[in-house]
Write the structure tokens for this entry.
Amino acid sequence: MANTFPDILFYVFAVLTLGCGALVIANPFSRNPVTSAMFLVLTIISMAGLFVLLHAFFLAAVQILVYAGAVIVLFLFVIMLLDLKAETMRRIKIYGFIAGIVSVGAILAIFMKSLGATPLNSDSAPAVEGNTEPLGKLLFTHYVVPFEVVSVLLLVAMVGVILLSKKNLD
Amino acid sequence: MHVGLEHYLTVSFLLFALGLLGVIMRRNLLVIYMSLELMLNAANLALVAFSRFNNKLDGQVLVFFIITVAAAEVSVGLALIVALYRRRRSAHVEDLTSMKF
Amino acid sequence: MKYELLPWLTLFLPLFAAVFITLFTLRCKTLSSFISIGAIVAGFILTVVFISANGFQIRAESVRTWLSIGNLQVDFGLKLDALSLMMMLIVTGVGGAIHIYSRGYMREDPGMARFFAFLSLFTFSMLGIVLANNFVQLFIFWELVGVSSYLLIGFWFEKPSAGDAAKKAFIVNRLGDFGFLLGILMVWGLLGSLNFSQLQGQLAANSQALGTMATIAGLLIFCGAVGKSAQFPLHVWLPDAMEGPTPVSALIHAATMVAAGVYMLCRVLFVLNADALQVVAYIGGFTALLSALIAIQQNDIKRIIAYSTLSQLGYMVMAVGLGGPTPAMFHLTTHAFFKALLFLSAGSVITALHHEQDIWKMGNLKSKMPVTFWTFLAGALALSGIFPFSGFYSKDSILGQALVRHNYLLFGVGVFVACLTTFYIFRLFFVVFLGKEKSDLSSHAHESPPVMTGPLLVLAVFSVIGGYIGIEGIYNRMFAAQPETSAGFAAALVAPFHAAPMAAWLGILAFFIGLACAYGLYAKADKDPLPEILGPLATAMKNKFYFDELYEGVFVRAHDCIAAVMNGIDRWLVEGFCIGLIRGGTDLTGRCLRYFQTGNLQTYAFLFVLGVVVALYVVLR
């Protein structure tokens, strides 16, 4: 069976993703944000594996580079900067717990209901192989304007961050 | 059982739900922010899965943009948190309730 | 029609003067008075020119469209016929004399510029009434004279009594005007037009056009005249209006504005049917009798003349009610002359005595104020109606009209009132001008300056000769179906003895009876002997038959009660319950919603998610 191996890999990565995601939000052993950040890295890497399984190789690379490389480093820097150890041991409030359960339950119920109700053509074998070259062509032809606009957005974000980080911001 | 779109979507939904749970239940602003990232990633996963099973690359392009915007958003958001922390000496949402009546 | 522009100029010159004085020359008393006097004298000259160019036979309208709402078109038009032209002459002529007199009378008043601005505003409004060619325009100017009357009565507003009198005049007039407005609306609703000529045409073509509402409509319109001409039961404001300066009493409350009611009745006579006219006649007669009785026991020189005005207005209204617009307008004209003269003479006396108005503190002014003495005598004789003074002719034509209608009751009332008139005016005359000085003030009195005596002399001349210079003929041609051939001067002089000898001789007899009584009682009196003779009746007369007290007790009290109830309803039901409920509901909702604003980020996130869930449920359903 040619398809068995990728299927096994899917389950492995799916379990990794969800397990690490759960540890990001609620780690029974540590309330330290650094732990959460580390598990976020793991989540993102396993999600990159899922992307590979979906033949989105370029995005898998970007995911690791941008998220694991840049975003998480940024998080760690901020955690170090703030030195949050004193506030790690607060109790979770019962109202917050109930609210979380209710909202998550409601939204999952909606998702699952719509998933079950909508016919999906997942059985038809994917024909086009998603790879880097056609994605680049599409990005620089059809989506060239949004691409450039996003670069402006990054510039603006950079300016904003520099401004916000100045000490005498008043 | 053959892995199809609905499997990926289910993983995506569950990841989204985890992120949401984190946003609503955790009190630390940084962790809330990480949970937000989880939710974004869940959306990315769903988009890539749709792109794969519908033979269209547009979904991947969208994910590319989302990653870019997320990077910008994280940098600005973290800068805000730092600025807030400087002023309030706290990164806990329970200490940041000045928008109350 | 030649010189169509002139009436427009006459109308708007006083308005211009009023605006100009108010805006620019309020600081300059002399200049203001000259502007005001100039405007009205120019108006008089322009009117004379216009009449000499067109004659009194003209029946024309000069119309500009004013506003047009749906099928209601309101013109701003001038109705030019004998009636309005004569009234214009009276308003600008008598008014001009009074304006000039005011320069002397008000010479020491710091508010003289304001006074002349008000006078000009009044002149404008009065001319507007006179010239109006439709009901809306008439009503607007009707209210405008009310306003200027209010301003002038309350001219000395620092006196509380003047302020009260102004308010009383305004409010009592409001009652009449309310009915007037209803009447106008009724006529418009039934006939669909407001223009006098069109209405007259419609009613001439179909006398039943107003149907069953004819009497009511007529009486409602008469309400306006009742208010403005101070007929019973709304007569109470006019005596109090004497709180204003004396020239105002002469101009507004004797010669012109109070006559506007009579003028209006003559103008819209075609609307009044026989039943309505009957009511008009009896109200007029009753007012004449009532006020003459009250006048007998008043001691304030201006109030006596004010009640006399009421009484004479009653005569005019009675004449209209008896179907005689010609006698009514004739009497209005002569009355304008001699009553303005009486008021101005009284004003001359009052200034000479430093604003003392009690007749029992005057006396023996004959030698000290000769001009005032003789002019007052002329006015008194004209008012009493003795041959050959003007009052004789106009009063006689009214009595004659009563005989023509075979209404002997009103004829008798008229003769009796004529007798009373002579009595009260000569009571005043004997006490004020003859006898001995009754106070120091009258010993030191001296004659008024020429600027005041000049207008007195002019008015005195017209009071004497006004009866036989063709005024009646002018009105007669206007109202009578076939014009009478105008007789010569000598014939006009004795015409009443031929036309209605009984009325004429009885009028003269009434004069002599009244004169004899007045002479017998008051020629040498130091105090009033009448209360001892008449007893309680005199007290009732002195207290104006307690009308003010009655109105105070009934209407004011009832009004206060209703106001208290309404106040309670407003305060407790509307404000407390309705508004309180809405306010409380809003408040409560706000308080409840406030708890959603916890300031907690996660609460907002939770609510946000719930909202998304609902939206998704609706979309994906």
Residues 547-594 of chain C form the longest helix (48 residues). The interface with chain B takes residues 594, 597-602, 605-606, 609 of chain C (CB under 8 Å).
